[in-house]
Structure prediction request, 188 residues.
Amino acid sequence: MPDDALHAAATRSERPAASGRDMAAVLRRNIEAMRAQREREDAEASIAQHLADRITRLTGSLTFVWIHVALIVGWVAINLGWVRGLRPFDPTFVILATVASVEAIFLTTFVLISQNRVSALAEKRAALDLQINLLAEYEITQLLRLSQALARKLGAEIPDPELEELAREVEPDVVLEEIEAQEDALRP
Prediction:
């Protein structure tokens, strides 16, 4: 994305952020941090994990499907005697079934290795998201309390019970317990 478009997307205006920092610069910094994190994660992956990822990418492609279609059609044509000059070598298709089964076992293993790695990375990112969200919630609560204190000092009373509720800090354990209780209530 060109710098101008990046800036416009980040700020939705041509004015710098209220803090004096250019939002496009903050966005660039965050994107760079994410890229660097992915590079670190990639560097930490074992050779086996990289191999599993490559095999999974290949087997998840249309090229792989078309190669298999061609091989299976050729195998069937030869073994049904449709190709002159080539003797059938697997007339009962037992060898084809065995090869397909062994291939399925290995491909499943490679896919599971890749999924385990992706799942572990997703868990790390989810934990980071949770920490950032908890920090943001804390900061917003503190800002709301500050705003309420300023309003009281200026004599501007805002009678809103919802604001009082929002000014209370969220306790993640209580929220998780409530979520679990709601899920338990829905289970038969």
